[in-house]
Design brief:
about 60 residues, mainly alpha, 1 helix, rod-shaped, mitochondrion
């Protein structure tokens, strides 16, 4: 007779959950600092140039 396997699913679940959370936080961090802030900087520079052109036109 084969003994029942206990606790295996629970251990795998914790490994899967921690890996998923770790990868999601790493991906979010990479997106925020790699893409979002650069786009935000471009947007702010665009509006700054418009503001400077408006001030110089007055």
């Amino acid at each position: 007779m084969i003994p029942p396997i206990t606790g295996r699913l629970r251990k795998k679940m914790w490994l899967d959950a921690s890996a998923a959370f770790g990868l999601s936080f790493a991906s979010a961090y990479a997106y925020w600092y790699g893409v979002h802030l650069k786009d935000l900087e471009k947007q702010e520079l665009y509006y700054f140039r418009i503001e400077q052109a408006r001030k110089s036109a007055q």
